[in-house]
Amino acid sequence: MKIRRELWFGLTFMALIVIGAATVLLSAETITNGHLGLLMLSLVVVAIMLGFPTAFTLMGMGMLFTFMAYDRDWHRTLDLMVQSAYKTMANDVLIAVPLFVFMGYLVERANLIESLFKSLHLALARLPGALAVATLVTCTIFATATGIVGAVVTLMGLLALPAMLRGGYSVPLAAGAITAGGCLGILIPPSVLLIVYGATAGVSVVQLYAGAFFPGVMLAGLYILYVILIAKLKPQWAPPLSAADRVVPLPPMSQRLAESPTAHALVGLLKGRRNAEVPFSHVLRQLTIVALPAIVFALLAGFSYRAVTTVEAEARYDIEEIGAARGSSSSGASSGGLAEPPAEGGLQEPPSEGGLQEPPSDGGLQEPPSGEAASPPPAASDASTLAPPPGAQPSAATSVAPAAAAAAEAPTYRAAPTWWIATFAVFGAITALFYLFLSFARLEIFKMLLASFFPLMLLILSVLGSIVLGLATPTEAAAMGALGGMLLAAAYRRLNLAVLKESVFLTAKTSAMVCWLFVGSAIFSAAFALLGGQALVEEWVLSMNLTKVQFLVLSQVIIFLLGWPLEWTEIIVIFMPIFIPLLDNFGVDPLFFGLLVAMNLQTAFLSPPVAMAAFYLKGVSPPHVTLNQIFLGMLPFMGIQVLAIVLLYIWPQIGLWLPQLLYK
Predict the structure, then answer these.
(1) 402-442, pLDDT tens digit by residue?
(2) Nearest Cα to 528, choosing from 36, 31, 37?
(3) pLDDT tens-place string over residues 5-26
(4) Where in the numbering of this chain does the TRAP C4-dicarboxylate transport system permease DctM subunit domain appear (predicted)?
């Protein structure tokens, strides 16, 4: 019987793990509980590679070794299981997981991806490798909106792969673009991976979302740059679109307005004589669509200009610091405020004679005499205390209070900053170029983008913007995103009972998997710590005397290698609880480490033999597309991922600038 290469690789990897664990145990003079913890870790990895469910493997191994760590006390073992399950149920961060997943399934079923891909490949038709670039952009947007890698890769395999193969594209390049682009959903927020890492490592999900945005955009940009360079250097791998493929059919009304598809749209719409054959309502609708970019630019410029140039005056109150003198007289006496009591007549010790004494033994308590003791104190002293001294002027603070209140109400203005001028100069130039080269064909492409691209971008930006700007928590934003997904599906007439039922079922299935993974991870981590495995690993790492750079390189190499046999969920819930306690010893920010891990875990979907993206694509690809061709196409994109990790480490502000700007 012939054994496939992937099976050989898996068996070899498991054999290496078993041999390594046996070597460590046999070479130890005394087998301690820490060695049992490492044995548990090895057995968990082997069991997962054999195909056992990850969550229940973690729970089973954790319960077994916890029973051993507690000296075979099954009461405490069961208590640990219950506490771990309750801790997961009480974690409010995980509420965002089913809501984001539900939004993704609804957006997927709105069937936007076909029109999105078509409009993007027509809009980018003049770029080298236009179909592959449009595939990457479509995958990036759709993966960001859904976060479901399998769905994006499968849909793009059905839609983009046949189009690229008909266009003469290389099979490895086409397969690599689809699989790499589809995996971006686990990095670019809103990402379930970041929620799971945040809940595991105790890092703010809001800061993770803010930090992962620019690294995700950078990685997508590197993919696009690679495809354009390959199309330039090897045009036979990515031939340009033919003239027939770039033709945009015009609707009948637009054909009456346009002498040709390349005629200027704005001029054609404003002509009086030729518009006589076209209803005025149609012309008005087209002009409204044409005016949208200018309206959006004007609104953004106006509101942002007011925000960056207005300086709100600080509120001033008629309250002075305690002890501050409002004025001074020639005698140096304070005219108001709290002051030290005078030296003479202030609080003093009672005299030794006539002070507080025991009452006389005879007579006991008596009424005071009706004379001097009953007379009230003179009111003149109080009046002299409360009245202002003669000749004192009104307080300066009192006289300027109305002026201060008026100054507090009136904001001041400053010049617009340079970055604002540069940003809107670029946007203004883009808007001007849009109108300068707006033909009727490009107007149709713009209308297609309005129907597919902009609704998704609006949904993504509203969800991310509300989280990053602090307007909503991730859970609240996820709820609004789920509502937005329902509205989007309803707007495209795809929302019905069957779609809703299927989306709810898939959401419950995915959420249950994530939550049981957390329960298993909590039990496994507790057992690993009880056995002393964490202390053993920490002692071993610290004994190597690594620098911060060496530790980061070692940890990322281990995660990269673990991505070959394991998926990202298993790496996060099993190995992150081992790495996170080590970060303080090397001065590593858990937020920055999480960004490196999220970037690195892109390889978990692209690295054979457990490259799930490759199997998703193979399931919907034509028979002549082999698995080896798909693997070959993914390797350059894995190299780009390694390059992106290096760039993020050299310039950490790529990921840390936005969180520091918003939450410093």
Answers:
(1) 555 555 556 677 888 888 899 899 999 999 999 998 888 88
(2) 37
(3) 656 666 776 777 778 777 777 7
(4) 43-246, 450-654
pLDDT at 654: 93
Cα–Cα dist 277/335, whole Å:
88
The pLDDT score that the predictor gives to residue 356 is 54
For range 134-138, the mean pLDDT:
91
Q: Is pLDDT at 331 greater than 80 in this prediction?
A: no
Contacts with 365 (C-beta within 8 Å, 6 or more apart), sequence order? 359
CB-based contacts of 239, cutoff 8 Å, min separation 6: 167, 168, 169
Which residues are CB-neighbours of 152 under 8 A, at least 6 positions away?
139, 142, 143, 146, 181, 182, 185
Q: Span 233-257, mean pLDDT? A: 82
Token duo for residue 314: 């600080």
What does pTM read for this prediction?
0.74
Q: Which of 102, 97, 99 is nearest to 196 (CA)?
A: 97
| One-character DSSP codes across 181-239 | HHGGGGTSSS-HHHHHHHHHHT--HHHHHHHHHHHHHHHHHHHHHHHHHHHHH-TTTSP
Q: Could you tell me the CA-to-CA distances from 139 to 117, 145, 155 in Å, in that order?
A: 9, 10, 10
Taken in order 83, 89, 90, 96, is the CA torsion positive or negative? positive
Q: At what angle do helices 96-109 and 130-146 cross, to 10 degrees?
A: 140
Instruction: Select from 159, 33, 185, 164 the least CA-distant residue to 100.
Output: 185
Higher pLDDT: 19 or 584? It is 584
List of residues 6+ apart from 196 with CB closer than 8 A: 97, 514, 517, 518, 569, 572, 573
d(CA 420, CA 304): 8
DSSP state of 567: -
Query: Which of 32-41, 319-328, 428-437 ranks highest by mean pLDDT?
Result: 428-437
User: Which 8-state DSSP code applies to residue 342?
Assistant: P
Q: How far is CA 149 from CA 156, 504, 657, in A?
A: 11, 18, 28
**Residue where the block lists tokens 């006496």:** 333
Torsion angle in degrees (nearest 10) through CA of 100, 102, 107, 111: 150
Note the pLDDT of residue 650: 92
Tokens encoding 337: 């405020």
